[in-house]
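Please produce the structure of this protein holding iron/sulfur cluster.
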Amino acid sequence: MSQEPAYVYKLQNGRKLTAAEFIIYFEQKVFKTIRKFKLFELDDKLVVALSGGKDSITVMYLTQKYLAKKNLQKNIQALLIDEGIDGYRPATIKFAIDFTKKLGIPLHIESYKKNYGKTLDSSVEFLREKGKNISPCNICGTFRRNALNVGARKLKATKVVTGHNIDDESQNILLNIFKNNFKILARLGPFNGVIEDKMFVPRVKPLYLCTEKEVRLYTLLKGFDVGYDECPYSKGSFRDELSEILNQLEDEHKGVKNSVVNFFLEIHDSLKELYIEDGSDKIKYCTSCGEPSQRIVCNTCSMKKLVNSEN
Ligand code: SF4
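Below is the modeled complex.
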């Protein structure tokens, strides 16, 4: 009697895949996303935003594989931003160092401590002691956007590649709808380069249509040494709540995350027209650091002042 092969994954149409079939399916999905949304040009100098977690390691590995098919594998570097999160980040930095060494990809490391005077841990503690109610993710997101953009520009990158997957994007879409942030909503998408400015390095997301579960399975099947732990600050955030709700919905109604992202993609052009291309969103430059900003003093400079100010 012939034995049934060991299946590891079931597609939405019911077809079951073995480990080898899943790896091909997953890689093809990522490469198709790159082509469909025209994420890379042949002369791009890519910088991968690397954390050492499963998503960023996967996107770096597959970006290099995609470039290698065109003999352009040298056009990739990695940039790691060390936030300074004790008990969490040091382990993933080790994964990042080991993996980039294995792939022969140059790795550059920047840190919040060096760029903004304090680690994330000390900033959070400092603001808590002062009774200021600012979420760690708010501080972290503000510094990370700046550190990535400035760091990538220093490396002469034409694009930053991030490991955002469909779980992240569906959360982002709903978060911005629930908070009435339509301008930020309009800037989401697989190619985050709607603001054209020579100082702003566009961001692209090759894992845009992959679920978190798929990325996890891929890294396990490939035997990658990567971090799977969640950041200790993520617990209890609005995003965390949304993630739980979406996961529950996805378990009961398969395809929900896909539908959220597909709906967004359908209306994305109209959102851009309404909230970005009317000219009211024109870029200005921070009077303190000179970086692109919507305000006179950018969020990064304001946050840096806040976490270092004794008043
Ligand atoms: Fe930063 Fe929040 Fe992400 Fe942790 S969960 S890395 S604090 S943005």
